[in-house]
Structures are given as C-alpha cells and as structure tokens.
Design goal:
about 325 residues, alpha/beta, 5-stranded parallel β-sheet, about 30% helix, binds NADPH dihydro-nicotinamide-adenine-dinucleotide phosphate, binds oxalic acid
C-alpha cells in the first residue's frame, strides 16, 4: 500500500521526506518514477497532470495539498473516490491577516499616504472614517470567510457575508444565492472574495457585479479584495471600473493567469495592489501532518474529514 505524490511546481522530494517521516510504514512514490499502480491507495495532489490519476485500481482517497480543489476538478478524468482538502488553523489565520491588513489599508487611506510621501505632500486630511461606518462584504462564508469576518468585527468594521446556502452567524448580516446578491452588494464598501472556483463562481466578479457595489459609502467609492481564485474575476472589467471611477481600488492576490504576465496592466495600475498568490501559504509541515492523520483515520476505519462535494465543486 503506497502514497502517490502527484504535483507540479513544488519540490516533490521535500514532500516525500516529510511523508516518509510521518508515515514510516507507507512507501511514498512519485509521479514520473516507476511504481506499481496497484499499490497506490492514496494520492496527495497539487495540480497533477490531467489523467495521471486514472488506472489506479485500489485508490481509496485523493488529498488536495491546498485548501482549494479547483485544480483537482480541472482533471476531467479524476477518479471517483473521496476527496479531502486542507483545513488548517495556521492557513486560516494567515488569510485573515491578509484580509484585515488590506481592509485597514483602505480604511486608513494608506495607498494615498504612500503616494503623498513619494511626492513630499503634507495633506493633513481630517476626513477619517471610523471602521464602524465602513461596510465590508465577504463573498464566501466558509472556513476562511467566517474567520476573517470575526476578526474584521473585532477591529470594528460593519461586516456582512454572502454564501451559496443561507447561514445564520451571530452578529453578522448574511445573504445568500442570487436572490441575496443585490442587497449584499448594495451595502458593500469593501468587497472581499474568499470564494472557491467552481462552474458557478467562474467570472462572477465582472462588470455587472462591480456596478452593484455601494457608491455612496464613507470611503468615497468601493474597493475589491480578491484572495479566492483568479478565474473568479474578469480583469478587463476590473480595469474598466477603475478607469470609470466606479471602483476606487483593488487588491488582488490571484489572477486569471498565474504568474501574472509581465505585460498585464494590473502591475502598474496606481489603484491596484498585486500580491503573488500568497495571501495564505500552506505551511508544508502542517499540511503533511494533516494528510498523514487523515490516512491514519482511514486505516483505522474512521471517516475522512474535510471532504469535498464533487457535485458542488468545493
Ligand atoms: P469553504 O469551502 O470552507 O467555503 C466556501 C464558501 O464559499 C462557502 O461559504 C460557500 O457557501 C461559498 N460558495 C461556494 N460557491 C458559492 C456560490 N456559487 N455562491 C455563493 N457562495 C458560494 O472554503 P475555504 O473558506 O476554506 O476557502 C475558500 C477558497 O479560498 C478556496 O477554495 C481557495 O480557492 C481560496 N484560497 C486561497 C488562498 C490564497 O493564498 N490566495 C489560500 C487558501 C485558499 P456555503 O456556505 O453555502 O457552502
Ligand atoms: C490553496 C492556495 O488553495 O494556496 O491552499 O491557494
């Protein structure tokens, strides 16, 4: 019985060493080297090549090495076995840090003061909105969205959440589905996207959605923070809204194409902050420990945790 590591872009030998230390009785094999396909019971994947997981007759589970699973569902020949993803308090904390940081940057007008400093301008502006007067709307109220919402509330922001199914969360205004979208956007000064990429969410952050954001808020116009997935956003529409002034700024951690091409106008746009898809890095030791524990659970006849629903795509 073996664990197959199927990843692209990462140091696979480092992962082999991690899993070998955590699961000393389980051989760890790597895609691309010779191995007995019948021996593979588990796969740990990050962006495995399309079709490379077919023909594993004893496969019992696939583990995403990240929180997102869109990279798995991109494989049209993905075996029909249970799929589990990363849910890790360390990753969740990092994402909340990112969200709180960038909401505070907009609240405290930091991009403007950075600009003024570069030009040696002392503009002692007295218009300083209180956090309680700024409405943050989080799209995606799962593991990450709920933690970010809690922490934004501690800072004082007026927070609401939007999800696929209705949710009741203490102290938060919640909205769901397409029927809740208009009201949700209409009360949002800073839109935070923490959605997974699925057929339903692809291209969601487009001209129509951006046009629905509140225009009369205390920040003088709406801002966007997307740390979910790049394909949620239509970058041409974001740029057009920035040009039109209906969007005041955007902080993007994820992009339609990654790495962000050097010719992308997002790099140099004065109202855009670019971070290189590292809002919440998965800590390799924590991820390997989580997956090893999941494998031990299965071996002990216990149910898998953090299972993904293939029908929903997340
Ligand atoms: P969860 O699965 O816990 O939460 C997903 C949330 O999105 C749920 O609230 C769900 O609604 C909602 N949702 C899904 N589809 C829709 C839809 N069609 N309409 C409205 N709401 C929808 O995921 P996590 O919070 O753990 O992670 C979210 C995403 O963050 C990941 O999928 C990944 O893409 C991204 N991520 C990015 C990282 C980065 O560094 N930039 C790092 C880690 C993750 P419901 O509550 O009804 O189920
Ligand atoms: C993830 C990510 O999905 O880092 O974990 O994007």
């Amino acid at each position: 019985m073996s664990l197959l590591l199927a990843m692209t872009g990462w140091h696979v030998e480092d992962w082999r060493a991690r899993f070998a230390a955590l699961l000393p009785d389980m051989p760890v094999v790597i895609l691309g080297e010779p191995f007995d396909r019948r021996s593979v019971h588990y796969v740990a994947s990050w962006k495995h090549p399309e079709g490379s997981l077919s023909g594993l007759p004893n496969l019992a589970a696939v583990f995403s090495l990240g929180a997102g699973v869109d990279h798995l569902f991109a494989d049209t020949r993905l075996p029909e076995v249970p799929i589990a993803r990363v849910v890790d308090p360390d990753l969740t904390t990092r994402m909340s840090e990112y969200v709180v940081l960038h909401c505070l940057r907009y609240l405290r007008q930091q991009p403007r003061y950075d600009r003024q400093q570069r030009e040696a301008i002392w503009d002692d502006d007295r218009n300083q909105p209180a956090a309680r007067s700024v409405r943050v709307g989080i799209m995606g109220m799962g593991e990450l969205g709920q933690d970010a919402a809690r922490k934004l509330k501690v800072v004082g922001f007026d927070v609401a959440g939007w999800s696929r199914s209705p949710r009741t969360i203490d102290g938060l205004a919640t909205f769901s589905g397409s029927e809740g979208m208009v009201d949700f956007l209409g009360r949002t000064d800073i839109l935070v996207s923490l959605l997974p990429l699925t057929p339903d969410t692809r291209g969601l952050i487009d001209a129509k959605l951006l046009a629905g954001l509140a225009q009369g808020g205390r920040l003088g116009g709406p801002f966007l923070i997307n740390a979910g997935r790049g394909r949620l956003q239509v970058e041409a529409d974001i740029l057009a809204a920035l040009e039109a002034g209906t969007l005041k700024g955007a902080t993007l951690d994820v992009f339609e194409t990654e790495p962000l091409p050097t010719e992308s106008p997002l790099w140099s746009h004065p109202a855009v902050t670019v971070t290189p898809h590292n809002a919440a890095m998965s800590e390799p030791e924590a991820v390997a420990t989580l997956i090893a524990a999941q494998i031990r659970r299965l071996e002990a006849g216990e149910p898998l945790e953090h299972v993904v629903d293939p029908a929903r795509g997340y």
